[in-house]
Amino acid sequence: MKKFKLSLLAGLLLIISASVFAGTPPVKVQEAFKKMYSKVTNIEWFRKSDYHIAGFVSDNQVKDVWFSKDAQWIMTETDVESLEKVPAPVAKAFMKSETPPIQIRYIKIITFPKMPTVIIIDIEEENSDKEIQLFYAPDGTLLKSYDVTGGSSEIYPELFG
């Protein structure tokens, strides 16, 4: 019985330690992040598939910085609270193309190391379950739209490839 209790305790400690360290990225990923954001201190690391993501708040904006497992910067998601914070051509194009009744669920500005910035406006039709993601270039050009009704509206690097 004593062996069972010790085995159970050891197993629980292993599970707890694995979950604590599951979000800690390799040192080279942490170093790459620090090169980009040397002054950021409150970082929450998490993992999605093969990506390490650093989440933090800077200038009152939530940011998620994505890195590959080999510490290459993939993209940065910046949450924006209103159309006033996106480039004016994007806000103008959006206002021309979308007619009420809709609700903006979220706005994200996605920056990349080697690709142009993309602004995503996720909308939902009022009194409906229909949800659409609109992808804009900074000049206001609508690049693409996805109907994500009933699916995942999660943003991930493969959407831009």
Describe this structure in words.
By secondary structure, this protein is of the alpha+beta class. The protein has 2 domains: 53 residues, Nuclear Transport Factor 2, Chain: A (Roll); 81 residues, Nuclear Transport Factor 2, Chain: A, CATH 3.10.450.360. It is 25% helix and 36% strand. Strands 1-2-3-4-5-6-7-8 form an 8-stranded antiparallel beta sheet, covered by helices on one side. The chain is elongated, with a radius of gyration of 20 Å. The N terminus is likely disordered.
Question: What are the main properties of this structure?
Answer:
161 residues; alpha+beta; Nuclear Transport Factor 2, Chain: A; 2 domains; 8-stranded antiparallel beta sheet; 36% strand; signal
CATH class of the largest domain: Alpha Beta
Say how many strands there are: 8
- Mean model confidence by pLDDT: 86
The CATH architecture of the largest domain would be Roll
Cα-to-Cα separation, first versus last residue: 56 Å
Q: Which stretches are poorly predicted, pLDDT < 50 over at least 5 residues?
A: 1-21
Number of helices: 3
CATH topology of the largest domain: Nuclear Transport Factor 2, Chain: A
Question: What overall form do the CA principal axes indicate?
Answer: elongated
CA-atom Rg in angstroms? 20 Å
Reported for the largest beta sheet, the result is:
8 strands, antiparallel
Proportion of strand residues: 35-45%
Overall helicity: 10-25%
* Widest beta sheet: strand line-up: 1-2-3-4-5-6-7-8
- What is the total number of structural domains? 2
Structural class: alpha+beta
> What's the SSE pattern?
HHEEEEHEEEE
Keywords: Signal
Signal peptide: 1-22
